[in-house]
Amino acid sequence: MSGEEDSDPLALHDVGVVLGGRPIVRQVDLSVAAGEFVTLLGSNGSGKSTLVRACVRLLPLATGTVELFGTSIERFRDWRRVGYVPQRSTATSGVPSTVGEVVMTGRLARRRYAGWATARDRRAVREALELVDLAAREGDPVAQLSGGQQQRVMIARALAGEPELLVMDEPTAGVDQHSQEILAGVLRRMLSEQTTVVMVAHELGPFRTMVDRAIVLRDGRIAYDGAVPDERDHSGDQHHLHSSEPVDGAAVPPEGVWP
Ligand SMILES: Nc1ncnc2c1ncn2[C@@H]1O[C@H](COP(=O)(O)OP(=O)(O)OP(=O)(O)O)[C@@H](O)[C@H]1O
């Protein structure tokens, strides 16, 4: 299938990923529409990171297909349309670069030719740093920043590429409250501009009211795909979510479905 303007930014069919001979992700079917904010929840080891890494081609598929904007991932070349924020532990450790340099790497997929950054590149970097409230740290080595600030650098890096689809792997893990609120503000703005967001999360925190849909993985399979219940409202319609074990405080699970 060739890329078409009205195709979903992300569509998975029967996706399976095998790591070290073990099936980690199994039979995942999932479509994410333009402008949607989807969170991926599930207990440790349920396969969330593996799934999003396969979606940005960091891991190969054992079965099934992934399409980005209507193009199969094997043939997809338009990576400037996709932003990815990796899990924090792998993000900036050992990188001696400055904040500005790291964020500038987010522009690389947009550069037509190798060469110096253009005025537009520099402006995009500055704006992304302003959005995450780090403009004053542009010339500082990333290593001098706190963990939460480093995570904001990685988010700015993805934003600098002006992606239409933003995939984030636990951007708030171990991040202070101030950084979480800054990220919530950034996402609110991106969603108002129709950016599509897929976010692996442990806690919804300030994002709860913004999320359109929660996907819960259990043992590599989708165990729930639906609305996020209001914290106080455990009654109601098709999203009737009986109170039982919260998923890492993220949401109240429907009986027999959530991990
Ligand atoms: N390279 C690998 N080889 C073999 N197994 C792996 C590899 N990478 C991850 N796994 C295993 O895959 C399973 C799922 O890991 P994954 O990181 O996708 O889970 P997760 O849901 O993101 O967990 P967490 O919330 O802890 O980040 C785990 O059991 C993990 O040990």
From TrEMBL:
UniProt protein name: ABC transporter ATP-binding protein
Pfam families tied to this protein: ABC_tran
Organism from which the protein derives: Solicola gregarius
Sorted UniProt keywords: ATP-binding, Nucleotide-binding, Transport
Superkingdom as given in the UniProt entry: Bacteria
Gene Ontology MF annotations: ATP binding; ATP hydrolysis activity
Residue ranges of every copy of the ABC transporter domain listed in the record: 10-244
Phylogenetic classification of the source organism: Bacteria, Bacillati, Actinomycetota, Actinomycetes, Propionibacteriales
Sequence ranges of Basic and acidic residues compositional bias: 229-245
Region (Disordered): 227-259
